[in-house]
Amino acid sequence: MKPDINQKPTKNIDDSKTSGMRRAIMVRLKAKPMLIAIAALVAIMSCGAGITVIYAMDAGKSVFANIEKISHDIAAALGLTVSEVLVTGRIETPRSKLLAALDVRRGDPILGFDPHKAREKLLNIGWIANVEVQRRLPNIIFIRITEQKPAAIWQHNGQFKLIGRDGVIISDQVISRYKDLKILVGEDAPSNAAALIKMLENERDLLLWVSHATRVGARRWNILLKQGIDIQLPAESPSKAWKYLADLQREYQLLQQRIRAIDLRVPNRLTIQIFEKPGALSTGEET
To answer: How many structural domains comprise the chain?
Structure first.
């Protein structure tokens, strides 16, 4: 029997492959609405500048509100809403100030949260020296904080405040664990704190004796030691005078004597005021 040349050849079709193709097509079709929704949400968020102009012109308040509601609904449907704020590095930073700066609530669209704006606000909190803010989709905001280290206590107008080495005010409250820091007195004390702290730290033996440092005439420092000795430093080269005193202490244990005050304001001259017996006047001795 001759073959029918008009008959088209047929191909063997693998049913399993065909069903797999159908499933792939169905998966793509099912995914399409979600992709459309994501694209719509991104489009809505990216045209915020234009929406703001309309809102500012008071010509489209209802449009703005409707678009914002749509974006919120789409974000909620996709799970792109804030459900958790993770914070690392926070020890002293008040939780209330942190949350106020972030200004975000559970259920807010996470794409509407601006990490850069949040970072600027967080840096205004005294305790925070540096901070990293991230959106971790679909629903987490991540905060990594580096806190300031208090270097001294500033006493001014009857108030005590924690300050850093650079003089920046960290907190209006002195936490108990920092109550032993050196106390600086004077209106311009914070702006001169860095140089003073460096000078004191250069002589560790004397540093342990220091209680207060007071600015005098916005020019120089008086240092009060814990045993009540008042050290008057010069306006020029105070570090040199402080080292001179440290050398005398190491060689003669000067500060263990009955001394009321030491004047180092004149170069190469040391004036000491000593305690006399009760009822007697003190005298000054120069070396």
So the answer is: 3
